[in-house]
Amino acid sequence: MGEGEEEKRTKQVTFFSVLHGVKIRINEEKLLLLEQILILVRELCVNSVTGRRLVYWYLNMGNLLKVLTCTDLEQGPNFFLDFENAQPTEAEREVFNQVNVVLKDAEGILDDLQSYRGAGHEIREAIQHPNDENLQEKAWSAVCPLVGKLKKFYEFSQRLEAALHGLLGALTSTPHSPTQHLEREQALAKQFAEILHFTLRFDELKMTNPAIQNDFSYYRRTLSRMRINNVPAEGENEVNNELANRMSLFYAEATPMLKTLSDATTKFVSDNKSLPIENTTDCLSTMASVCRVMLETPEYRSRFASEETVSFCLRVMVGVIILYDHVHPVGAFAKTSKIDMKGCIKVLKDQPPNSVEGLLNALRYTTKHLNDETTSKQIKTMLQ
């Protein structure tokens, strides 16, 4: 079967499902006629029985036109998620309050990370003059409080993991679908978005700050040397050996917070075996679709009170794509993925280049399945 015949066959099969058993072939001339009819229907008053019937017909014909123009019937959830003003309902309040205790510290963590300068100068001086005790003490005194900050960042990642478990439990529970959950529990959806936003911001800052790993490596080497020489270390109470090992694994990751969320989501799935994995992955893909639709629909986008909300929405869309790609068995880029990757990339590329280059790089370099053979050449080209 040739490519053209295959395309016609696909149209007919989809058409069959929409019209409940009626198979129709249609040419471009008839398609134009249908479009003209739809324009007339839009202009009709809907405050009459006839008008309402026509509108009902119009909605069904809208699905028909989607088939005829080869666009997907599943265009994704079509509702506005209020990232700016969503407030918890009584049903959401318990989980919301638990998560809020964690999120209120997120901005402070980012501020501390952004201002983290490291002890590179003191460490270099100490290494270059190993017999100068004064320089050794100076480097140690500079590093210890910084390691205290790194400990705080790591411990926050553990708190974030617990918060994510609570949110996923609420947003994936039966019998509601992911779309119903996100539409009804907008305050929890907003918190989930804030966790994703924080995660990308944290990892961006960490990736551009080599001082973090340098400081921690120096701390561990010096601590080990002190133990061998039986020298008491004042900073040891700050980070014991077991915690240091866990922190070392955390900071060795290129994107440590994303790894934390990915592991937490995978653990949530394994801990809730009675819950279909699709409930979790569909929650992620639905969130990505909601963000994409809001960004590409002028009616929705105009409702954002601040331009910062656009940036927030873009970052959340990318964050949830990356998380989906790490958690879903075949990832976000496969043909069977429930995320419209071409649409999401197009939304990113429609923004001012300087504002989204970091997000495009996140898709290029922190996803898991982009370079798989199952990823279409078109998507790979779009991200080059």
Automatic annotation (TrEMBL):
Q: Where is the CYRIA/CYRIB Rac1 binding domain?
A: 78-380
Membrane topology for this entry? Answer: Lipid-anchor
* Cell location: Membrane
InterPro entries in UniProt: CYRI, CYRIA/CYRIB_Rac1-bd
Which Gene Ontology cellular component annotation is one that this UniProt entry carries? membrane
Q: Which GO terms describe its molecular function?
A: small GTPase binding
Superkingdom of the organism of origin: Eukaryota
- Family, similarity comment: Belongs to the CYRI family.
**Which PANTHER family does the annotation name?**
GH09096P (PTHR12422)
Q: This protein is called what?
A: Family with sequence similarity 49 member Bb
Question: Which species does the entry assign this protein to?
Answer: Callorhinchus milii
